[in-house]
UniProtKB/TrEMBL annotation:
Residues 1-75 form the Nuclear receptor domain. This is Nuclear receptor domain-containing protein. It holds the Pfam family zf-C4. One of its GO terms (biological process) is positive regulation of transcription by RNA polymerase II. Keywords: DNA-binding, Metal-binding, Nucleus, Receptor, Transcription, Transcription regulation, Zinc, Zinc-finger. GO terms for molecular function: nuclear receptor activity; RNA polymerase II cis-regulatory region sequence-specific DNA binding; zinc ion binding. Coiled coil: none annotated.
Length: 375
């Protein structure tokens, strides 16, 4: 369903799920000056599929309110570059198909029959990989869950944007940005039906042992490499300076953390939804934790249910990426994401060990005591 006019959605456009009409409308009008598009109804039109053409200003305002991003509209030069890349990828696929056919002609009849059966199976599998209308509904729910997780957990007692919050101690770093990331992640996960259906003990285990690594992954969604700062997109949250990590955690952890942010950044700029799905997948990952000999990870009561829940989102991510980026690019992307998630796990463990060596439980918020394994 289109987030703007509630018509049936056709795809993921400008960072939101929309219909073709709202996609085209946003592309035509988002870059125009506010003086050009005048509201004819005092800003009170509740946009839907029946009245979406009544007032351009109200419709455009709703597009922005729902999170559509005008910076994703391609210039003519960018369109030409993208078209050239598509053509190049098409030629590469044609060459690969030609090579495959040549190889098949050189094998004997029995091998050809076996190859044909495999190709038929792959063809059926590829058909099922195409994203469905139910998949789009799930993707829209993921977007809404993430937006709600931010909306329901505003920063309290901190300055508002564009103020920068200075952090100078490990306790501040943990109790402020890390704590708010964690709270928003938990709210995000609580809106997932698969998470809500888990055993209570399994929920606690996955949250307690996986959350710190997920904080680092989530931070990539709000990181701005141009000035090394963090600020939640679309909110009046204050800015956090990345270089405060040096004073709070030391230069080595700062460099490792910043390297992870920069490694994720092109994925984030290309498609933020991929990272939001990865957060869910890694939540359901048994063993993706900061456990140690002193704090071993408990055995899940229903590991099969957790595994099945994870597979739902693994399959969804694969279908979504294959639909958007193509088969071979999806393979490259997922391999890269796995590598980055492993790097995140390492940095999360180092961070936890550093905090344990510097702070006591009394200095931390209750949730952070659990995440840092100090309670």
């Amino acid at each position: 369903m289109c987030v703007v006019c509630l018509a049936p959605a056709t795809g993921y456009n400008f960072d939101q799920i929309t219909c073709e009409s709202c996609k085209a409308f946003f592309r035509r009008n988002a870059l125009k000056s506010s003086n050009v598009i005048k509201c004819r109804c005092n800003g009170v039109t509740d946009i839907n599929v029946h009245n979406r053409k009544r007032c351009k200003a109200c419709r455009l305002a709703k597009c922005f309110a729902k999170g559509m991003r005008k910076e994703w509209i391609l210039t003519d030069d960018e369109k030409r570059t993208k078209k050239q890349k598509i053509e190049e990828n098409r030629r590469l696929r044609q060459l690969q198909n030609c090579q495959t056919k040549t190889d098949e002609e050189n094998i004997d009849n029995s091998a050809e029959e076996e190859e044909e059966s495999v190709q038929n199976a792959l063809s059926v599998q590829c058909d099922t990989c195409l994203i469905s209308s139910q998949d789009w509904i799930t993707l829209e729910k993921i977007q809404c869950a993430y937006a709600q997780s931010v909306k329901l957990n505003s920063l309290v007692g901190l300055p508002l944007y564009p103020s920068t919050r200075k952090l100078s101690t490990p306790a501040q770093m943990v109790n402020e940005p890390t704590n708010i990331h964690s709270t928003r992640l938990i709210t995000y996960f609580k809106q997932l039906p698969e998470f809500c259906e888990l055993e209570e003990d399994d929920k606690l285990t996955l949250i307690k042992h996986n959350l710190l690594g997920l904080v680092f992954i989530r931070a990539t969604l709000i990181y701005k490499p141009a000035n090394d700062t963090y600020q939640e997109y679309g909110t009046d949250d204050c800015i956090f300076d990345g270089k405060d990590l040096i004073e709070c955690y030391g230069e080595q952890l700062y460099k490792k953390s910043t390297q992870i942010m920069c490694s994720f950044i092109d994925i984030v700029e290309c498609d933020r939804l991929v990272v939001k799905i990865i957060l869910i997948i890694m939540l359901f990952s048994k063993g993706y934790s900061t456990c140690t000999i002193e704090y071993p990870e408990p055995v899940l009561k229903n590991s099969t249910q957790v595994f099945q829940s994870q597979n739902i989102y693994v399959d969804l991510l694969w279908r979504y990426c294959e639909e958007k980026f193509g088969f071979f690019n999806t393979i490259k992307l997922l391999v890269r994401l796995i590598t980055l998630c492993m790097a995140v796990e390492s940095v999360a463990k180092e961070t936890q060990q550093y905090v344990q060596s510097k702070l006591t439980a009394d200095e931390l918020a209750p949730l952070m005591q659990s995440v840092m394994h100090l309670s």
